[in-house]
Please model this.
Amino acid sequence: MSGMDCERLREEGAELALGILPARERAEAVAHLDRCPDCRAYVERLTAVGDGLLGLLPGAEPPVGFESRVVRTVRPAPDPAPPAAAGPRTRGRRLRERRFRFRAAAAGVATALAFGFGGWAVGTVVEGAPRVVAPAPHVLEAALVSPDRAGNGREVGRIYAHPADATSGHGWVYMSVDLGGGAVADGPVRCLLVRADGSVVPLGSFHVKAGYGYWGAPAPADLAPGTLSGARLVAADGTVLATARFAGAAPLASGPAGAGADERGGAGPAGR
Amino acid sequence: MGVGRMGLPLERVSDEALLSGLATGDPEIAVAFVRRFQRAVYGVAVAVVGDPRLAEDVAQQTFERAWRHAQVYDGRRGSVRTWLTAIAHNLAIDAVRARRATPVSPEDLETLVGIVSETPERRALADDAAERVRRAVAALPREQARALVMAGIYGMTAREVAAFEGVPLGTAKTRIRAGTIKVRALLESEETR
Model:
């Protein structure tokens, strides 16, 4: 894995803080910050300059009617169902809100690292960074799907992978899940990447709270574009909680995961 | 004056509480939120994209995103206003990049450098955070102030700054770095005074 030392970080810290460092250098710089608190503090100090510059731009009155147009857009449609009969509707809405929550959080983290690293992205890569821009075409995105009892898939999260290219040394993987408090309400969840040849690479683990969590980590150096086929989230007891398959990837060697499937993880051929 | 669920007139509710209140879907809160921040958000958008119609789209998207991402706002990292202007800034840069190769014309750049480094007497005496930044930018050599505005406001990379100014990449990187570090140093020296 290529590394960036403190000296180079200090050279590029201003560009990182202003959010203009190109993707490859940014990935290296972020990886360095992840292990160097001094440089992190340095970059955090510099981000105040970018924020301060924006604060100098004069306010301007938007066109007439702007306020009502915005409010119309963000206001949820009225729910006509009376409270007594609102059970399934409420649940449906809650699910939609949850889905939105993990999409938003994962997209925020992924795009923060893929596109910009302003003041709002300085921090750990697992924290939500609302740097909200459209994902780049080279970032792989897939739904994390959990099978229900009927064998149908239910989307419980999103995963984004920015594979290493020939020169950058490593890529990044970010994800956000909302498992709904079923299989794992609070506790560690392991993430395994699945290569196109079916072999499995453990990426790391993170904690979910009330079934919800988001996380990011550097991807292995040998994870070149085209070699990544999907991912699995696995509970501490080996149960597969969710699987993802990246668009254009070959079907996972192990096929769709079943509830309660056993996954003892680790490198080596996939297959349960 | 609307009185929200928070038990206060909405005009007096804190920025953070108003942001949290968006999740309730209460239209009064949404109106109060937009009303409070629309000038700042639209101001950033129009400064970066130049075109009022496009700026309105950017500002509208900013509020939509704020509403959707309210739960990831972290007050330890800055004010709601700073957060919103950062979102508007990102969206504006994307909007410009999707439409033209050069993010800014030489004339617009000059105008904006003038605005962010303008220090008339009444402002020089003020001591809020924005005026401290303004004084610090005004104290920079002109080429560093230009590089800082190109990078920090128009989102231009060092390579783009180099091409725009007709200087080597290393020079552009040095200007961006020196400008940023000097502004930070001046801010810190004023903060500790």
